[in-house]
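hey so i finaly got around to running the thing on PPARG related coactivator 1 from Cavia porcellus. pasting the sequence first so u can double check i didnt mess up the copy paste, my clipboard has been acting weird all day
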Amino acid sequence: MEELILQDEALLGTMQSYMDASLISLIEDFGNLGEVEMALADSPWD
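ok and heres what it spat out for the 3d tokens, dont ask me to read them lol
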């Protein structure tokens, strides 16, 4: 039973790391999107 608990904790740790990386990636993507919108707003084609 103890081995199963340790495996569950390892799986949860792996999932947490994956979720953290995914969240950071999403935040970076939204930040980049804001930079693109600002660049388009300042474009000389308006």
